[in-house]
Amino acid sequence: MNTFDKVLKFTTEKMSWGAIIAIVFCVGLVVSDIIKRSMGFSMIPGVPEVVELTASVILSMGIPYLTFVKGHVAVGILVDRFRPRNQAIFEIVTCVIALAFTILLTWGLFDHAIYNHRIGWTTGYLKIPRHPFIYLAAMSMALTCVVLIRDLLKAVITLRKRGEA
Predict the structure, then answer these.
(1) Which residues, including other chains, have CB under 8 Å from residue 35's CB and lie 6 or more apart?
(2) Between 84-119 and 131-164, two packed helices, what is the crossing angle to 10 degrees?
(3) Which residues contact 29 (CB under 8 A, 6 or more apart)?
(4) Helix 131-164 crosses helix 2-38 at what angle (to 10 degrees)?
(5) Structural domains in the chain (count)
(6) By CB distance 3.0 to 4.6 Å, which of 20, 58, 96, 158 could disulfide with 88?
C-alpha cells in the first residue's frame, strides 16, 4: 500500500499544482481586465467566461489533494476523544457516506459531459466547448473516489488490527 500511497500523493499533488496555476492565471486575467478598464479602454472580451471555466478547473483539481491530506472539515474535537476502535468505525462510516456521494457525483458529471459533448454546448461569446472542463471535473471526482477508497481500506485495516489486539 506504500507504493500506491506515493503514486496517489504524487498524482493529487500535481493536480493541486494545476489548480494553483489556474488561480494565478485567473487572477492575472481579472487584474489585467480591471487595469485596462480603469485606463478607459473596453474590457477584455470573454473574461467572465474564461473566469467561469478557470474556476471549474481550480475547484475540480484541488478536491483530490484536499481529500488526500484530509484538509476537509472534520469533527476532530469529538472524534479524538473516542477509543481507537471507535475512531476507526467513525472513519469507516464517514468514508462510506462520502464515497457514495462522490460516486454519484462522478457518474453525474460523466453523464453531463457526454451529453454536452454530443449537443456541442459552448460558452456564449468565445464559443469555448464546455465538455472538456466537465470531463476534467469528472476525472477529478473519480480520483477523489480512489482516495476515499484508500482511506476506507486504511480504516478497515485499523479496525481489524485493533480488534485482534
Answers:
(1) none
(2) 160
(3) 44, 47, 50, 51, 54
(4) 140
(5) 1
(6) 158
Provide the whole-model pTM.
0.87
Q: Is the distance from CB of 130 to CB of 53 less than 8 angstroms?
A: yes
Mean pLDDT, the chain, rounded, equals 90
**Burial profile 133-152: b = 16 or more Cβ within 10 angstroms, e = fewer:** bbbbbbbbbbbbbbbbebbb
Which tens digit of pLDDT belongs to each residue from 14-59? 999 999 999 999 999 999 999 998 888 888 888 999 999 999 999 9
* Residue 136 DSSP SS3: helix
Helical H segments across the chain, by residue range: 2-38, 47-68, 76-79, 84-119, 131-164
Contact assessment for residue 79 and residue 87, using Cβ atoms and an 8 Å cutoff = yes
Query: Which residues form the domain of 117?
Result: 2-164
DSSP bridge pairs for 129:
122
Low-confidence ranges of the chain (pLDDT < 70): 1, 72-76, 162-165
